[in-house]
Amino acid sequence: MPGRTRTLVAIDLGVGASLLLGWLTIPLAVPHLVLGCVFAVLVGVHLATRPRRLAALIRASGRPRRPAGTRKRFAAVVILGLAAIGATVTGFVQWAGIAPGPANGLHSMTSGVLFGFAIRHVWVRRPILLQRLRRRRTPAA
């Protein structure tokens, strides 16, 4: 498997694993916080390793008219991004003790939306993910 594909697969798996493990460690404050930070960093790396896709998404945000399918995909990615930002910010606010009551509810809500849209994102992108994983198993010539 080429180096770039191996890197993309590792980042994809890291993002998914940190999100899942973060959800599983909700009762444990420190591991949950550490995994939340790891998730936030890996999402940034995930976006940075896809500059053309990110540039196309930014260009598409300025277009007033898009086909229906493109609008739905764009809306889903925007909601996923906002939920990731919301979960990270509310997690830090809750951890810092700035607004414990409201932050707790907002963190739970944004995390739930994030988890749901992350599952949708993986489901929609599964052909590409499966292609990368198959390419990874193919022996070198």
Give the gist of this structure.
The protein has six helices and no strands. With 141 residues, it is mainly alpha-helical.
The average pLDDT score comes to 80
Tell me the radius of gyration.
17 Å
Helix content: over 70%
Number of helical elements: 6
Order of helices and strands: HHHHHH
Count every beta strand, where a strand is a DSSP E run of 2 or more residues.
0
Structural class: mainly alpha
Q: State the end-to-end distance.
A: 10 Å
Largest sheet geometry: none
**How would you describe the shape?**
globular
Low-confidence stretches: none
Whole-number count of domains:
1
Question: What kind of oligomer do you see?
Answer: single chain
| Proportion of beta-strand residues | under 5%
Describe this structure as you would to a colleague:
- The chain has about 140 residues and is mostly helical.
- The protein has one domain (about 5-135).
- It contains six helices and no strands.
- Helix 1 (about 5-25) crosses helix 6 (about 125-135), helix 2 runs antiparallel to helix 4 (about 70-95) and helix 4 runs antiparallel to helix 5 (about 100-125).
- It is globular and about 45 Å long.
- The model has no long low-confidence stretch (mean pLDDT about 80).
